[in-house]
Amino acid sequence: MAFELRQNLKLTQQLIMTPQLQQAIKLLQMSRLDLVDMVNQEMEENPLLEEITSDEDPEAEKKIEPAETAEEDREEPQTVQRTEELTGEGDGREEFDWDNYLEDYGPMGATYDRKEGTAPSWDNLLVAKSSLTDHLMWQLLLSRFSEDERRIGEQIIGNLDHNGYLVATPDEIAVQEKVASDFVEKVLEKVQEFDPVGIAARDLRECLLIQAKMTGSARSLVERIILDHLRDLEIKNYAHIARKLKASIEDVLAAVLIISHMDPRPGSVYNEERIQAIVPDVYVFKSGEVYKIVLNDDGLPRLRISNFYREIMGGITGREKQENGKKYIKERVQSATWLIKSIQQRQKTIYRVSESIVRFQKEFFDRGIGSLKPLILRDIADDVEMHESTISRVVTNKYMHTPRGLFELKYFFGSGIRKTGCDNVSSKSVQEDIRKIIGEEDPRKPFSDQEIVKRLGASGIDIARRTIAKYRDMMRVLPSSRRKKYF
User: Fold this and answer.
1) pLDDT tens digit sequence for 376-412
2) CA pair distance 461, 464, nearest whole angstrom
3) pTM, to two decimals
4) Domains with residue ranges and CATH for the chain
């Protein structure tokens, strides 16, 4: 069998993502906080990138509006010019004139101003709060404990989770501290007398028993229910509890009322977790009958390429040093240019998608959630002439501050449900109708899922019972048997 070499001509299509396109896609799906962190990191790594301060910004004076200016005399937010979707064409390999580039280069991207008083309130966000560990250690140091007891108490406090439950067994603590388990149990009983009541329990039953003891309900019907009938208590099977304990239903309800006021998570009051305030990416204002869209650039560094390195280029002597210096600076310029253009493209894409969402959901902004229309990614993609994957990246981790409240961009998308005599309604509108129906029910006789189906059918909404159950779970609403209240 003979072997030979041949040359064949073959035509194929291949998708290649340039570094610039990869960076643009990465920036597009970033949240605002991630973008700020990434920009700050790039500014540390790339010496050619620098931030434009307010003193250096020639447009700064134009953006400051006097307080006494009338509303009708205020300048409208600058409209973003539409641009084509970033394709990644041009990978930065083309030659360019270094001298003219830095001379003519200015800050890229549009800037926006925001009317005073329209942003969410930032009051009371930074408040010093005592932690659960600090609160318990303060009580431990004030208690009459011996040196060994204090050492065991510190171990117990150090092994509490954020809800105040003990995650280590007394035997494990005893082995670690080289003491008897009975000694750890005695210290644990003393720590369980600390505030908040129910702290350092090993499970829910013990937590409730500690609170029952502190409230003087020990050795009573309350204690018997906690010990033997927690499951019946959870499903509100009070008749079964009364039959088993040979007590009247009135006495059982009175005991249940006491238990319902106990805290199953006593340590959560001192939880160290802080609520993270959401900074919106887009603001929507109503001006007359038209909704204006303003991108939020607060906190996002405005970048430019430093002219300082142009002077350095002029001071480089020697052919080899000059070539090496120009090569390095040229690479940094390409990297900085890609980043600035990608950020600019990201802002413009968010603006176009937000503009399309407001246009599709104008009735929602006018009348509320009952007028929210069914909307899918394909509708927005066709409107702005982009791919669905791009729209999906835009609406991820992006938020819009509107006259109706603060919403994630994903909120405006949802499937439709058939309604008699008119167009389909959004699933979120149906969920709001379910919430209203449940809010108007008699707590002693809550509506079943089938009853909710009938009530929605009377308003022309055709929906299955299993869909009601699914929406209830999404809204974290309990079934009718567990919503029933006896007192």
Assistant:
1) 899 999 999 998 988 998 898 899 999 988 999 999 9
2) 10
3) 0.63
4) 19-54+96-113+280-405 (no CATH), 132-270 (1.10.10.1330), 416-483 (1.10.10.60)
